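Researcher: Let's run the pair from yesterday's discussion. Sequence first, then tokens, for each.
Model: Starting with the first of the pair.
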Amino acid sequence: MSDTDAVEFTFVSGHLALDLAATLTWRSSYPIELLAGPRDLSAWIEQAGLAEVAGRIDDADVERMRKLREAVYRTASAGPLERQPRAGDLRFISRTAAGKQLTPVLEELGRAVWRGNVDQVLATVAHQACVLLGGSDYRRIRACTDTQCTRLFVDHSRSGSRRWCDKQSCGGRANAAAYRRRRAQPSPRSPHAPTP
């Protein structure tokens, strides 16, 4: 696989930890693993704007990130599904967050980069998950209403009524389907139309 074959990740969840959770797509219908290997994890880290990662990323790193992803997904989805989170997931996320995080390096005014290794990326993402899930914003976590999408997102809308993870993809599909349903229904006869 060349660098041009890297996965293009989507960051629409409104939070880093939920964007990680979205790297396993279509969970309930046709799961697609986007973190298939080290190159994919490296691409996700870069596209998330997390770090210039020092050191090699290996399969064990990918597995650890997937384990964090699943713990975050189960915990974050507990709220919208009105379930209690697993105690083991809470401990795992907290334990991972306790590690050394990425280090910001100020390169010039208005430009800082994050540097570190994969362990620090894991700790940073887990820390962000703790901040989200342990703060008041956890009440704003929603599940996309597209019946096949399993993405979670933080509803930052003023009314708290956002329905889709992404207006263009899931929202666009829902709106197109509603339009097709309306067009397929016979229109009511006008009261002024002549009768046959």
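Model: Moving on to the second of the pair.
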Amino acid sequence: MIGLIENGVLAKNERLPSLREFASSFRVSINTARSAYDVLERERYVRTVPQSGYYVTDRVAVSELSPVDALSLDPREVGLGAIASAMAASGAERPAGIDVGLSYLARDLIPANTLRLFTDDAHRFHRNMPFPLLAPHGYVPLRQQIALHSLSIGLPVKPESVIVTSGCQESIYVALQAVAPTDAFVAVEDPAPFSVLRILEALRLRPIEIPCSGDGGMSLEALAFALDRYPVAAVVTNGSFMNPTGALMPDEKKRELVRISSSRNVPIIEDDSVGDLFFAGRRSRPGTCLSFDRDENVIYCSSFSRTVAPNLRLGWIIPGKWRRSVERLTRIMNLGMSAIPQISMALLLEDGFFPRHLRKVRGALRARVPAARAAILAAFPAGTLASDPSGGVSLWVTLPGGRKSEDLYARAVPDGILVAPGNLFGVARRHESSFRVNASVLIPDAEGIARSLGSLAAQIPRHGEAGIPVR
């Protein structure tokens, strides 16, 4: 409820559901509902009107902005756009710096030599390639190989159901274009991938941020409440090793997410770009929302950029019942899509290299992520928190005492270390003390980098202090 109020979704002076309606929506008792409203009233998010009910106050009005306004070029957007631009500029100025803010594999985990060999083969093959293989929706053998890979992870899809894109970001962009008209509400996780927030901004869509827990992902109770109260056009989820927290939504919860969305005829756009990077305590890959979908209500998006190499710029989308719209949109966007990366990736998959590569990467991450986490907790001020993911490359770190991660970012840039401040991953600025780091990049000098960042973090004033370094 606080998230809906802070985002401006529940507007000032808007009447809240009655206690009975609230209890029914969240499946709690009347006493629990009353306690929740008491907290909202005590924190001045709502006020009571005798004989009428509870109403939203203007305590945390978002400068009178709606969620879509909060993603435009206003003071709040400066936290997203300016920092993102500065990160890019800093990286360009310091090519030898350590960018621990991105969420791609470390360079030593990218199979550059193997990719070069398959690219050379692709160039030779391309000279005499039958033209029909370059179908409008992707190189046919690549689509066949993606379908085979999908089958190996429990997704029996046909090659003709697979549409090749230039990456997962493009897949999500196209999916949202297909299902969400301008100014529509879209439910997203909080925190959410920065790229998703930028897509919503570009398409002029209105995010409803659904709170997430560190160990289970999106709150389905909050999602159901939002879907029942607002005309939500889509739910965007990154349920397997979420960006930026690394959280994993359990398979049963994914099944329930599919049920909740399907029963309300709201499509799910699933980002599964790092689901293959599982490691801690798991022998098998986590499930997907698509594997529980019986109504073609899930639009599945994935990519090789986060599992093989970012410069591949290759992804795919399985659009379900929105296939015709997605085909039309991708046909327009991918007129100039290069054949060589598609051919080289198809050859790599046919060779059987991909499973071997994934085993190597998982083994590396199994060692690196816990080591990076331990180094951070040892070097940062007491009270620092860090996520403990079972897959992916991201660690979500929260500074104690209300210290701001943007201050850490600013202090680390001169040392050539780039982190991703928490405000990049949310609209309502609820993550000012958190930041994302790439655990795979911290190695081999995790302790040294952690000590440098920890020392800088200790110099950041606690909330309410006037620039006094913390000892």
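Researcher: Give me one sentence on the second I can quote.
Model: The first strand starts at residue 46 and ends at 49.
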